């Protein structure tokens, strides 16, 4: 049993802090440390860390106020139909655009850089 817990701590688990960089609308870069699944999504991490002017729909993927552009790294999670629709409505349907409220805080975000986009 002790071996199991040692393996859990040595792998990429909720105990290992990770980082994501957010560039705000003033082009200031913010390195934010997070733990896996610490918040339901990236939007809530951003709002609770420093930036409160996004997320009018409270994370439902409807308003488009939390649009981010991936500027560094590779992020391969697929978009839901709702997220695709919201991005298209706000003319941000191109590659690299995502809604922060639809991005889960997991190991796939570690080391990525996103820019907050105003709509």
Using the coordinates above, name the CATH class.
Alpha Beta
Query: Treating each run of at least 4 consecutive H or I residues as one helix, how many helices?
Result: 3
Overall pLDDT confidence: 84
From N to C, what is the helix and strand string?
HEEHEHEE
Q: CATH topology, anyone?
A: Ubiquitin-like (UB roll)
> Class by helix and strand content?
alpha+beta
Strand content: 15-25%
**What is the level-2 CATH architecture name?**
Roll
Largest sheet: 5 strands, mixed
Strand order of the largest sheet: 2-1-5-3-4
Report the radius of gyration as a whole number of Å: 15 Å
> In the CATH hierarchy, what is the superfamily?
Beta-grasp domain
Helix content: 10-25%
Low-confidence stretches: 1-10
Could you explain the architecture of this structure?
The chain is of the alpha+beta class. The protein has a single domain (16-116), classed as Beta-grasp domain (Ubiquitin-like (UB roll), Roll). Helix content is 22%, strand content 21%. It has three helices and five strands, in the order H-E-E-H-E-H-E-E. It has helices spanning 2-10, 42-49, 81-89; strands spanning 18-23, 29-34, 67-72, 97-99, 113-116. The chain has a five-stranded mixed sheet, covered by helices on one side. Strand 1 and strand 2 (29-34) form a beta hairpin. The longest helix is centred in the N-terminal third of the chain and has 9 residues, at 2-10. The termini are far apart.
